[in-house]
Design a protein that fits this description.
With 247 residues, the protein is α/β, with parallel strands linked by helices. It contains 6 helices and 10 strands. It is globular.
């Protein structure tokens, strides 16, 4: 299948779909100087469209952003819906935060579900996202069954603005770590140490983005905005399953 990726960022969801044999064409992104508002795709060329419009308007942390004096990113769902309508694919997949709305595109029936990176995908990072599949006949996403076992290790969600991670806690006289607790404060938003942690938590190989021409803070933001690779693989397989041999 030929797939158009909207709001691709550094392409973490794209990577998962490419691993499943989809051919992914990346659309414009602000990260690379592009603007979806100027983008007009050809009709009938793409089998599917995937993407996650900026989620800040629907994030549960949006009030903290406003409290700190920052302006929320604009709601780009209307542009996402416009491009899908113009491209007229057989299906589309929208990824976003749990409180995000369903995309509405004439002619498509949208089925959505919340997906946990730990419980549904077997990843260590605790992260939940809403995936909405739009098709002409109302097909649904069927995830791997049985689901993989939940890992013993717990890793808090990595966000674009940083996040927490586990901290070993020594109990007793031996000084050996007995268990871990979540360190909830920002783990150094601009540090290379947290960047390495974020890359590992997202399931990416060590050294990912080492040669990219961005600041450490910029790299953390890009990685945190992406879909964990473990979750992306499960979703890509579910899309392939939904379309059987046609995928």
């Amino acid at each position: 299948m030929l797939v158009l990726s909207l709001f691709p960022g550094i392409g973490l969801l794209d990577m998962a779909f490419e691993e499943e044999g989809f051919c992914v064409v990346r659309g414009p992104d602000l990260l690379w100087g592009g603007d979806i508002r100027r983008f007009h795709p050809p009709a009938g060329r793409f089998d599917g469209v995937i993407g996650g419009p900026p989620c800040q308007a629907f994030s549960r942390l949006k009030y903290l952003v406003e409290h700190n004096g920052y302006e929320l990113a604009p709601n780009m769902f209307p542009e996402f819906e416009r491009v899908i309508a113009a491209a007229a694919p057989a299906w589309f997949l929208c990824e976003n935060v749990p409180d995000a709305p369903r995309p509405t595109v004439p002619g498509y029936i949208v089925r959505d579900r919340l997906v946990s990176n730990r419980e549904d995908c077997g990843g260590e990072q605790s992260r939940e996202r809403r995936f909405s599949l739009g098709t002409k006949d109302g097909r649904e996403l069927t995830l791997d069954w049985p689901p993989p076992p939940v890992p013993m290790k717990y890793v808090p969600a990595v966000c674009a603005s940083g996040g927490g991670r586990e901290t070993p806690v020594a109990i007793g006289g031996s000084g050996k770590p007995k268990h871990s607790i979540r360190k909830a404060r920002d783990m150094g938003y601009k540090t290379a140490d947290f960047m390495r942690h974020a890359i590992e938590a997202q399931g990416l190989p060590a050294g990912f983005l080492d040669d990219a021409p961005f600041t450490v803070a910029g790299k953390i933001k890009m990685v945190g905005n992406g879909v964990p690779l473990t979750m992306g693989r499960v979703i890509a397989r579910a899309v392939r399953r939904a379309f059987g041999a046609a995928a």
